[in-house]
Amino acid sequence: MEVEEDTFEEETLEEERGGPAEELEEVVVREENPPKTVKIGSTLAPEHKAMLQKVIRDYNDVFAWSHEEMPSIPPNLATHRLNVDPTFKPVKQKKRYFNLNRNSAVQREVDKLLRAGFIREARYPEWIANVVMVPKANGKWRMCVDYTDLNRACPKDSFTLPKIDQLIDSTAGNKTLSFMDAFSGYNHITMHPSDQEKTSFITNQGLYCYKMMPFGLKNAGATY
């Protein structure tokens, strides 16, 4: 996990964010309690709106609402690999200790990741990182992994993300635009088997490594 200083001015942070360009209406995808819904633009032409609603309901099985329902991208299509400089000596960070509240949050997160198949037990890893607990706005904890040492040993991808003007140009000529909220998007992509144990982290429960691509790695954004 790389920590950078916030360079925004205070007045920039206080600026009001713009709202959506049009009103949105909810479409029920699954009849559950509570129902699972998605949002579509209310200004769509009636025939387009009816067609879109039918497609969403007919193919409701493609939506994932939990980690267990989430499929992964086949490894033959995409995997994330680490280009670790062999001149760097592997680092095993000294274990950090947390209070009972944070330890309980770590245990819950580890259990959830194990059930989803995102992590596995690591046996004798050469790289070991600590977890970092970050408070969320709702009062809960977010578990991150301190990959500072591992990232230092990896060169930065020369082509990280497409330029924003390329993304805008690619929408030219299209009548509609769809925004997809990719549920745990990074965790759709597998870590290459030879690099999985380099992502190892330590907790009170033991040593674990990621089978799926985690947040915090230097070039994860470029792969995603």
From TrEMBL:
This is Reverse transcriptase domain-containing protein. Pfam families: RVT_1 (PF00078). Residues 1-14 have a biased composition (Acidic residues). Residues 1-23 are annotated as: Disordered. The lineage of its organism: Eukaryota, Viridiplantae, Streptophyta, Embryophyta, Tracheophyta. Residues 134-223 form the Reverse transcriptase domain. Transmembrane segments: none annotated. It comes from Acer saccharum. CDD domains: RT_LTR.
